[in-house]
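Researcher: Hi, I'm a grad student and pretty new to this. My advisor asked me to get structures for two proteins we've been looking at. I'm not sure of the right format, so I'll just paste the first sequence and hope you can take it from there.
Model: That works fine. Here's the first sequence with its structure tokens right after it:
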Amino acid sequence: NYTSEEVQKPLTTASVRANGTINSSLFVDGADAGIPAQIIVEMIHMFSYSVDFQREIQPGDAFEVYFDRKYDENGQPVKEGNIAYASLTINGKTLKLWRFQSKDGGWDYFDEKGNSMKKFLMRTPIDGARISSGFGMRMHPILGYTKFHEGVDFAAPKGTPIYAAGDGVIK
């Protein structure tokens, strides 16, 4: 026979600040600064509408993030919460985003002018990809003649997650 029991333990929430300079990548240097992977992934998603992480990030760029962390009764971290604020400085220009929750419970990230982080399309809808074919005239790979290419093709290893570049669903 098996029995189960639910034990609820109180958790405390505190804000955590982390910052650093990018020497190799936001992911590696963020982890070195003590930022958990899920928070780094959320930061990348937050800024993906404004930043091409494959081509624009350079050594010397900087980052800062404030996020919630939950602790158990012994003071040990047990869960990461939401990002309240994040900034990314690229080539001397600082992008800042704040989390805002509306009265209806919805939320989004906004810049200092109140603009949503979301734009029409993400700059790079796939992590770790290279552009294999750009927008414009190109030799069609199947038809063999020059034809206008109306999109941008990305190449990445099989199984790499793909984001919807705008409103939509990837099938």
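Researcher: Oh nice, that was easy. Here's the second one.
Model: And its structure:
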Amino acid sequence: SRIYADQIAQASSLDVFIERRIGYKKKLIDIIKKYAGPNGRIVEAGCGSGITAYVLGLETYEVRGIDADPDMIDLARSIAKKLVSPVTFAVDDIRKLATIESPVDVIFSNGVMEHFNDNEIILITNLHLSLSGTVIISVPSDYFSDAQKIHGDERFLSREYWRTLMSKTGGRII
């Protein structure tokens, strides 16, 4: 939450922060909408500030954002209230998804999976696949520089490495 507080402060206002976040997530949002259908149920696993969840929630989707950090859920709720968004948020671990009832059309994460080891990623993905037919992940790649590391524990892996890793799950790569 400290990192997001710093980013909001650097943006000069919450509105500018939101606008910037939405801008670079457009492609991801379009992919999620494609797989969720017109009125899908969507879960953002590791929602952080919840910006992507809000954008989807302002449309025809039922969206729930989860994060293990209670401070992030507080931030997400405060932003949702400001945006008058119907998205719901809960403290939950993406390795458990205890607050999620299936079926869900799409479970997605953005900038989350790279913080886990290979075995955890496979287990998390398989859990998410058991609740939803479609799991979408967005991760930084090995094209990122060390200066782009936010938390310091990101694993910047190649596309090929991610494809090999995902091939070990019960899903198929699209």
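Researcher: Is there anything I should tell my advisor about the second?
Model: You could mention this: The two ends are 33 Å apart (CA to CA).
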